[in-house]
Amino acid sequence: MKKLTILGATGSIGVSSLDVVARHANEFDVQYLSTYQNVALLFEQAQKFRPRAVAIYKEDSVHEYAQRFKEIGVEIVTGFDGVLELSRRDDVDIFVNALVGAVGLQPTLNAIKPGRRIALANKETLVLGGELVMRQARQVGAEVIPIDSEHSALLQCIVGEEAAAVQKIVLTASGGPFRERPETEFGRISVAEALNHPNWTMGPKITIDSATLMNKGLEVIEAFWLFGLAPEEIDVVVHPQSIVHSFVEFRDGSIKAQLGLPDMRVPIQYALSFPKRLAADFPRLDFSQLRDLTFEQPDYEKFRCLKLAFDALAEGGSAPAVLNASNEEAVHLFLKEMIRFDQISQIVEEALTQCPRNGRCDAATLLAADQTTREYVQSTFS
Amino acid sequence: MKKLTILGATGSIGVSSLDVVARHANEFDVQYLSTYQNVALLFEQAQKFRPRAVAIYKEDSVHEYAQRFKEIGVEIVTGFDGVLELSRRDDVDIFVNALVGAVGLQPTLNAIKPGRRIALANKETLVLGGELVMRQARQVGAEVIPIDSEHSALLQCIVGEEAAAVQKIVLTASGGPFRERPETEFGRISVAEALNHPNWTMGPKITIDSATLMNKGLEVIEAFWLFGLAPEEIDVVVHPQSIVHSFVEFRDGSIKAQLGLPDMRVPIQYALSFPKRLAADFPRLDFSQLRDLTFEQPDYEKFRCLKLAFDALAEGGSAPAVLNASNEEAVHLFLKEMIRFDQISQIVEEALTQCPRNGRCDAATLLAADQTTREYVQSTFS
């Protein structure tokens, strides 16, 4: 029986993670959950899974639930301090980080302990802190297992192979809702259009990132840290059907791919059960209905964010932190309809020129770069 | 340094195997080679790779080469007895069986020895003798590693996974040159048309089998023995581009595929280097050129041989031996223009009704079924 923490339990990945846990009640036991502010759903989850404690980020949303959690014997901690406190607790085998944004880094660092598995859906943890996190995990003997469908695909293709046999990885990208939209119309894209992803149902931040292809850029940086390849050994191919989740090419020219219907429960369950696979009746790809799988090169001019991510990875140091922070702020402004869709990449590009960067990768430097960049974007574009 | 025997050294697989060996002169050392009758090529190979001995099946083709082999210090053995004798020799780590047809079974049985690897391109070995060969290999601790691109793909997808996690395998088939030809025109297909495979350059027997889809049927039976699944857990999907070489579905719904350009050197090298991968500069799949991968269901009415193979597998015992022998004879008659293309499946179907079959799987029973079936086809259709 593996004991679990799930940070971000009420988001899309959190809910799917609890679906997986519910299917394997003999394998997994929930110890800790957190939410940003969806206390009603968190309470339902607590009733069902009976964690020892929950963290509620927005303290003012606790209200009448305080008493109800107490009645079912579930401790409440609040604020970001509460999240950090839960992430330090010891009685946990698998720490699922499904937080959104750079806020996920510190909890991950807290949670790295000998023998523990970090199941990572929070890609900013590695985008900002890849060097730090991977080094710390190696030092204490913790595992970092990805939950992203692409990185799970890569892990599944690499399992059983020698690390040195991997020559190249190719991340697939759906291309998002604007793959065929001319760049000249990018200024007129509405929030509603950008939130309408063709294949995946996800939270708003990652859905906008999928529309700009910044999501793929962040995944390239994540893959760099997870799989230890050079930036030029990581490539992206657009695959609108989202059936092939990624490719690995080996040094003998052989290629493996992992595929399946778009269903985050598959990579989540794999991250929990790895290296084993548990039986599950998730909907299957019907081979008798399989027709066309199409592929094309990404348009790096039109989807400038993807290019900027490769550039930030090549520069290294705090550049990915600047990339990520400026993107988070720009997406936030776009969701509030304060900037146009095409300004997202412009803001990121400007931040990468204007914001101070350096080559150090300690947590303080990275979080300072994150903070400075956010302030720059807010003061310049709000 | 692994010591190799290659039976069928002058055929398509044999030549590619020696290409792989030449690329890794520090890894592999050729001990024994055999040919059916291409003594000129065998002599060239012997000059280059300096085996201890060679077997020449057709004794009357030795002629003037006897002296030349002697001059380079290479022993000659002749006839099928010579092939059998080489297959029993001890100083070999990897035994590559690239013979064509049922004649490959006995050499494989001879070669199964503790710690030895059987690298199998001769699919009839398993079609006829799957139960016998796999049992004997398990008993003495020999490995059976497939060289077929499809079975190599399956092995590559399964490596690192628990056997129990495999739920289904799906073999891809190019569909051959007559995928879009109406069945009503099958009677008018010429030998030259049938020998013109769209994706792979192979010997005449397997090329005709690819045109009838019997090749895929034989591979289904081979997969059954190699991977220990139930017949209903093995499926076939037509994939005209021959880029995806096969799929494995796991019990969590995840699917893996192995893919690459059609190049037999990749699965051959994998069979020799397994579980490692050796670096090789075989032409790469260019992801920037990757466009459409298409899939469709096989037409079991039009390609009756594929259906008959599934039936023979379900019946078991000596039925696959009858299927294989009648097909070998029918293909032989077609290549000699003594029957029409559409008669190949008719002959196999008739043989499966007319020829005695039973449930025993010892070598004598299987070879008797093989012999009886050949005589039946020859006497009825020649």
Q: Nutshell version of this structure?
A:
The structure is a homodimer of 382-residue chains. With 382 residues, chain A is of the alpha/beta class. Chain A is built from 15 helices and twelve strands.
Describe this structure in words.
Two copies of one chain form a homodimer. Chain A has 382 residues and is of the alpha/beta class. Chain A has a domain of 145 residues: NAD(P)-binding Rossmann-like Domain (Rossmann fold), CATH 3.40.50.720. The first copy, chain A, contains 15 helices and twelve strands. In chain A, the strands form two sheets. Chain A has a seven-stranded parallel beta sheet, sandwiched between helices. The first copy, chain A, has a four-stranded mixed beta sheet with strand order 9-8-10-11, with helices on one face. In chain A, α6 links the parallel β6 and β7. The longest helix of chain A has 19 residues. Chain A is globular. The mean pLDDT of chain A is 95. Chains A and B meet through β10, β11, α11 and β12 of A and β10, β11, α11 and β12 of B. β12 of chain A pairs antiparallel with β12 of chain B.
What amount of the residues of chain A lies in strands? 15-25%
Radius of gyration of chain A: 20 Å
Shape of chain A: globular
What is the percent of helical residues of chain A? 40-55%
Low-confidence stretches of chain A: none
Number of strands of chain A: 12
Give the helix/strand class of chain A: alpha/beta
Q: Please give the order of strands in the largest beta sheet of chain A.
A: 4-3-2-1-5-6-7
